[in-house]
Specification:
Length: 144
């Protein structure tokens, strides 16, 4: 497994663990009160921060393990990695555009800030997961 593919998998693993945790905590708070009164901002920042740090840590540890097995090939990238990265970015951007349009609609109808922020957060989350899946599939099956 090449360097870039390991990073893709690290991001996917962390996203699949961290994002549901955010949803569960918000839903637990929503059980007792209206969602508009939930203090979502610190929770969202912590989720983003933990996700970033965990992805970096998993990538580093996985890279160290891979480096012990194959010291020469641990950090190599090639044109295929660049092409897969570009394809994944295009997939991610399409979901970010959809999230942005959703945010614009919510702003137009005067929705609460909770819904606007969480729509954008969900867009980022879906974008990261779907883009990561697209990259992982491309690494395994190739670009078509």
């Amino acid at each position: 497994m090449v360097y870039e593919e390991r990073n893709v998998w690290a991001g996917l693993i962390v996203s699949i663990l961290v994002l549901p945790a955010y949803v569960v905590i918000v839903l637990q708070q929503a059980a007792n009160r209206p969602v508009e009164t939930i203090d979502w901002f610190p929770l969202m920042l912590w989720t983003i921060g933990i996700g970033i740090v965990a992805t970096i840590v998993v990538s580093i540890v996985w890279g160290m393990i891979a480096g012990a097995r194959d010291p020469e090939g641990v950090g190599r990238s090639d044109i295929r990695d660049r092409d897969i990265g570009r394809m994944g970015t295009r997939v991610e951007q399409s979901f970010l555009v959809l999230a942005g349009l959703g945010v614009i609609v919510l702003c137009a109808v005067g929705a609460d800030v909770f819904w606007i922020a969480n729509t954008m957060f969900a867009g980022f989350a879906v974008s990261a997961v779907v883009g990561g899946v697209a990259r992982a599939v491309a690494y395994r099956r190739g670009l078509v």
